[in-house]
């Protein structure tokens, strides 16, 4: 399996005026590309050379120390997930099973968006803010630097990059404005909904398997 820089899921100017083509050209073409290239360089000739990016992230995750390979592989994965977390037709509320769960777990959609924005604005330094499914409950979490929910047993539904390189050209130090724009105009709910459906289907399948192994089902 070879690891490559994925194409953006939309033209480079598709998120304007919210995120400029200049930002995406640098963010995707330089930053994301550098994480991919560094990962490829570090796995060349090792037993990880044929593994998927997800495998490399999981296999190199260590609680004690983040290695250069983990940092680059996780950043490569996080960025691919982030491009898909945005859409030129994003933002707003949408009725879905996920919206129902958000209302249940956060006490309403407005409370959820307030909590997400607050987590993104207050995250100190570089990192990511995520909506994740943890067991059967939705959570908003933030991770520092390259850290990623998959190595903490949580399933990401969407993410927002809060490294300065994600917004500085367009918003300078106004992170709150970037955060509000992401949530209100860019957030790709279709992507989040499909991740939620897939995670639920996988959990149900795992429960069925566990039930049949334990003999608890007829
Ligand atoms: Fe980034």
Structure overview:
- The protein is mainly alpha-helical and 218 residues long.
- The protein has a single domain, classed as Iron/manganese superoxide dismutase, C-terminal domain (minor pseudopilin epsh fold, 3-Layer(bab) Sandwich).
- It is 52% helix and 11% strand.
- The protein is built from eight helices and three strands.
- The chain has helices at residues 21-43, 53-60, 68-84, 97-106, 109-122, 168-171, 175-186, 189-214; strands spanning 127-134, 137-144, 155-161.
- The chain has a three-stranded antiparallel beta sheet.
- Helix 2 packs across helix 3 (68-84).
- The longest helix has 26 residues, at 189-214.
- The radius of gyration is 18 Å and the shape is globular.
- The model has no long low-confidence stretch (mean pLDDT 93).
- Bound molecules: fe (iii) ion.
- The site of fe (iii) ion has 7 residues, from helix 1.
Small molecules held by this entry: fe (iii) ion
* Beta-strand share of residues: 5-15%
Q: Give the averaged pLDDT, no decimals.
A: 93
Biggest sheet overview? 3 strands, antiparallel
Cross-sheet strand order for the largest sheet: 2-1-3
Q: What would you call the shape?
A: globular
User: What oligomerization state is this entry in?
Assistant: single chain
Provide the structure class: mainly alpha
CATH level 4 superfamily: Iron/manganese superoxide dismutase, C-terminal domain
How many helix segments?
8
> How many domains?
1
């Amino acid at each position: 399996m070879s690891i490559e820089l994925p194409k953006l899921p939309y033209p480079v100017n598709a998120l304007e005026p919210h995120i400029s083509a200049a930002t995406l050209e640098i963010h995707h073409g330089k930053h994301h590309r550098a994480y991919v290239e560094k990962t490829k360089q570090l796995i060349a000739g090792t037993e990880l050379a044929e593994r998927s990016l997800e495998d490399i992230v999981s296999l190199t995750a260590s609680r004690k120390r983040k290695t250069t390979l983990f940092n680059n592989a996780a950043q490569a994965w996080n960025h691919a997930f982030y491009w898909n977390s945005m859409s030129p037709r994003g933002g707003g509320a949408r009725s879905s099973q996920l919206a129902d769960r958000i209302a249940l777990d956060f006490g309403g959609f407005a409370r959820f968006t307030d909590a997400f924005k607050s987590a993104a604005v207050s995250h100190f330094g570089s990192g990511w803010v995520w909506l994740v499914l943890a067991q059967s409950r939705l959570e908003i979490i933030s991770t520092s630097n390259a850290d990623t929910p998959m190595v903490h047993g949580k399933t990401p539904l969407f993410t927002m990059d809060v490294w300065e390189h994600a917004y500085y050209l367009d918003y300078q130090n106004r992170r709150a404005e970037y955060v509000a724009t992401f949530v209100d105009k860019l957030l790709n709910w279709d992507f989040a909904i499909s991740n939620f459906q897939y995670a639920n289907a996988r959990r149900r399948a795992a429960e069925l398997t566990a039930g049949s192994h334990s003999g608890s089902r007829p």
